[in-house]
Amino acid sequence: MTDQSALKSVYPASAEFVAKAHVDAAGYEARYAASVKDPVAFWGEEAQRIDWIKPFTRVKDTSFAPGNISIKWFEDGLLNVSANCIDRHMLTRANQTAIIWEPDDPKEPAQHITYAQLLENTCRVANVLKAHGVTKGDRVVLYMPMIPEAAYAMLACTRIGAIHSVVFGGFSPDALANRVNDCEAKLVITADWAPRGGKKTGLKDNTDKAMLHCSDKVKVLVTKRTGDQTSWVEGRDFDLNAEMAAARPYCPYVEVGAEDPMFILYTSGSTGKPKGVVHTTGGYLVFASLTHQVTFDYHDGDVFWCTADVGWVTGHSYIVYGPLANGATTVMFEGVPTWPDAGRFWEVCAKHKVNQFYTAPTAIRSLMGLGAEWVEKHDLSSLKLLGSVGEPINPEAWSWYNTHVGKGKCPIVDTFWQTETGGHIITPIPGAIPQKPGSATKPFFGIRPEVLDAATGQVQTGTEAEGVLCLSDSWPGQMRTLWGDHQRFEEAYFSQYKGYYFTGDGCRRDADGYYWITGRVDDVINVSGHRMGTAEVESALVAHDAVAEAAVVGYPHDIKGQGIYAYVTLMKGVEPSDDLRKKLEAWVRHEIGPIAKPDLIQWAPGLPKTRSGKIMRRILRKIAENDFGSLGDTSTLADPAVVDDLIANRMNRG
Ligand code: ATP
Ligand code: MG
């Protein structure tokens, strides 16, 4: 068993790391204090990190007042995102690699795309879009593999002021059609096929199916990825590669207002129908750029790798916009962590000498389950920093990541944020804030978190506090509205606790002022009057050597009000048994206390996850409640078969 006491401690960055870091402890304290005391001065200054075509005169005009939720930053400024991400680097970095593209199949060569090449390709796509009548404010949906063309297309939209909405390539035709219709897109950019993990998905086929449910005015641009055959609808489908080759290699960028929409991105849907989150141009770019530099302590010349897909906000902010605005070298990876083998991530780190590596706890846990020998095979000496995003990282996974990947010398930044926040809002700043495994630590500059009592909405004024996480003031990266539905925006985020942005997440603040995200508020369980975050029980289970992954939900219990139902995935090679079940119950009892002992444990070969790897607890809740007639929106589920197995083997049949 792992020594849990070792995990309770605090991990400062090494003196060597701190000496080189952009921000040290004193710097963090001073800048954070300034950012909340005078946000206008702070952000007015920070916004100078990007180029403005016309400088803004007003920094902040925001209101969280009920009935008048309005968020504007740098409102009268004009800028262009692609000019900031590409053109302005041309004098100093034209021949520097902007994007390292690593294909799905390691036998295929990687590509190194320089800033000069990025400019030309982006311009060519922009000219193609213009030729198809796309203009400022039009919506363009991208449904693409993780290939450089996806970045060109995103940047090309921003170059001409079109609004992109990237739909993850793993989504179904229905999910694609819903999004195309919701944002009334004029055009869809896709690819013939998307290779992933040695298999390929027919993106063009899926697009054809989706188009049956969309306006016949929508055009489709198709890029070749594999070159395998696809069907073709004359007059609707166009060959992107051929048109790029024929297009002019330069396209002037347009002036875009700071508050003009830049992109729409639908949330992952782990709690219900996806929401069309709208981000605007100026504030988003400032925030993505600043958080990328500070949280990852990115320095010129570093190779930065975020393993997300551009279909998620993480891919927007930390593969494309943040890194490129900073003139970075960013890795774009088409594949999966476990193909051709479980060492792929580490092989890519070694091959491209990655300095900062940013991934999700779900990936770490699944690799942990396959054994550390896959890590040890590769030379990871280039790594300086590790990051985590998407879910609370349980201390066990944190420790594995720290020991085997970081070799104990890389700070781990556990970044808490959302599609809605545009960038990190609670996160360790690596040279400044000592880490505690499992805690996202402290607020980023300009972020004003408050812990509110979930029931009364009272602000918890003591340092130590527990409740729901809200933010009392705006920051530049904040979403502005939900596409076409400002009322749902108010209802979803500002109606529960008046005057605050409500994250939907529970949290605890400890005596050192560190924040611990305890999971979504919907996921809190109440056992005999004791409120408990499901994350805590899951962490305890995962800390057991036999357990690879666990998901915990509540279900109605005659005596306790709610009982604890745990779905447990065992480590490879471990056999389920009643004896093991008893051991796990005793283990949780010992780790947290008798109150947290699971009432029912179901062995789960797999857990229902969204395409971004998040556990869909609302489905698990339904199964635990023995009520699985209507599971709600499951269109973003990665593998629907998992659900059938869980239903068949459910433990509560009462
Ligand atoms: P939907 O809103 O449609 O249900 P979603 O919330 O899963 O989908 P995202 O915006 O991708 O969509 O995820 C944000 C959520 O992920 C946060 O609200 C939080 O619950 C969780 N999260 C992200 N990072 C962390 C982290 N470092 N620690 C704990 N939780 C995290
Ligand atoms: Mg959410």
Mean pLDDT: 94
Amount of beta strand:
15-25%
Q: Helix share of residues?
A: 25-40%
Ligand set: adenosine-5'-triphosphate, magnesium ion
Distance between the termini: 35 Å
Uncertain spans, ≥5 residues at pLDDT below 50? 1-6
Query: Could you tell me the radius of gyration in angstroms?
Result: 24 Å
Q: Shape from CA axes?
A: globular
In short, what is this structure?
By secondary structure, the chain is α/β, with parallel strands linked by helices. Helices cover 31% and strands 22% of the residues. Helix 17 links the parallel strand 19 and strand 20.
Outline the structure in words.
The protein has 654 residues and is α/β, with parallel strands linked by helices. It contains 22 helices and 30 strands. The protein has a 7-stranded mixed sheet with strand order 5-4-17-16-18-19-20, with helices on both faces. Strand 9 (194-196) and strand 10 (199-201) form a beta hairpin. Helix 12 packs across helix 13 (313-325). The model is unreliable at 1-6 (pLDDT under 50). The chain binds adenosine-5'-triphosphate and magnesium ion. It is an enzyme of class 6 (ligase).
